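INFO  loader      accepted 1 record
INFO  loader      residues=275
INFO  predictor   begin
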Amino acid sequence: METSERTQSGCVRRSPSAGASSLSRVTVLGVQIVNASRQEAIDQLEQPLQQDLAATRPVYIVNAHTLNLASESQTYREILNSGHVVFADGTGARWAARLRGVRLKANLVGTDLVPAFFRTTSGRGYRYFLLGANHETIHRAAETSRRMFPGWQLAGFHHGYVQDEIGAAKVIDAINAAHPHVLLVGMGNPLQEQWIHRHRASLQVPVSIGVGGLFDHWGGNLQRAPVWVRRHGLEWTQLLLQQPHKSRRYLLGIPKFLLRMVACLPRERHLSSHG
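INFO  predictor   done
INFO  writer      dumping tokens
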């Protein structure tokens, strides 16, 4: 994994290598994002499921908040760039990519991408495991996913409070014993990416995906915004209304991201590949 150096503005001097992908990429605040349509993203997710892999392939989905964290932490940025693939979620990432001369093919929001992936690959004998949220939420999310995706088999689920190594080892043993093809990890940023990265060599699962608040949606804690709100890139307002404790993330984080997005533009224009 190639390292990078962050300047005071949060930009990088050298772009780290991203996961293997034939798709073009755009660099935003030091993170290499794959420019994929929804179907191309689904193909990227399914590809490792058909291979005999010794370690899991991490898949990360970044938004403005994630990119802010990556700008502030070289270690976290390198974790993201070491993944199999990084997808973009949200208006902020699309704006940043467009300023860098790349028009992203799709807005790959995890709450839409994962269900689309499951439905497209239904009936192919795949199994999945859910890891994240609290006891009650993950139980509800598991039952919801079982109803929504009858063409996949729920291999198991576990709450996300497994940060200590003893607890993590037990959970990993349970995951490996269940033989899932896909592990969905919903611990929030940056914990879920750090957890996947720290244990990627031990996870005998072809693909591990960081899914953020997906289990809160499946568990009934959050409601999706109307379609017209999502189409206008304003879903964050719906989330803010339902999660006022995250107001700093949106009200302070969005202006911070916009400033960084522009500050890093001269350095990152030439880092973006166009296939």
